[in-house]
Design a protein that fits this description.
The chain has nine helices and five strands; from the N terminus they run E-H-E-H-H-H-E-H-E-H-H-H-E-H. The protein is an alpha/beta fold. The model has no long low-confidence stretch (mean pLDDT 95). The chain binds adenosine-5'-diphosphate (ADP).
Length: 189
Amino acid sequence: MAAGSLVIVFLGPPGAGKGTQAARLADDLDLVKISTGDILRSHVARGTELGRQVGPIMERGELVPDELIIAIIREELAGMPEVRAIFDGFPRTTPQAEALDALLAELGAPVDVAVLLEVPEDELVRRLLRRAELEGRADDNEETIKRRLQVYREQTQPLVDYYAARGVLKRVDGLGDPGRIYCRIREVV
Ligand code: ADP
């Protein structure tokens, strides 16, 4: 039996735990996790044309241009007979959210839930600096972390209102044990 379409967006600042929680939810609900950050990092690692273009932008903690991101998403969604997806780290700007809505409208599968993982900024910085030691990501250094948080506040935070206005926003406390946070997410999804 077909499970039907299901589209979930994960919103939240860098370090909120979107990737971890989205992966678990994708597994449990049989959804494809689409992480623009992972896709971009894979291009950088493989040295593709796109990777060469976006690498320096990512190292500065700035956002990659909307057109490039939207092209990636269009490609990911193409050929999905039924959209069952979790977006992690996308959309990050209002034009990206509008483009996603337009693409999903064509596919007849609107955003069902936007999960906002809420974590205070001092905790985010602690987590990202810890991740820097463990994973050595090029953008996990103190200066770039500050810039990424500022970019989040300026460009991505408006999406909280965007999804609230559509009645799909669910706020989840992102502090504490990852297992407990996951339980909170399951209560709203
Ligand atoms: P984090 O949530 O920790 O910032 P991500 O892996 O989501 O990590 O993103 C890493 C970087 O990749 C961002 O700082 C940005 O440069 C780029 N990026 C990822 N997703 C997007 C997006 N949707 N729009 C623009 N840039 C993006």
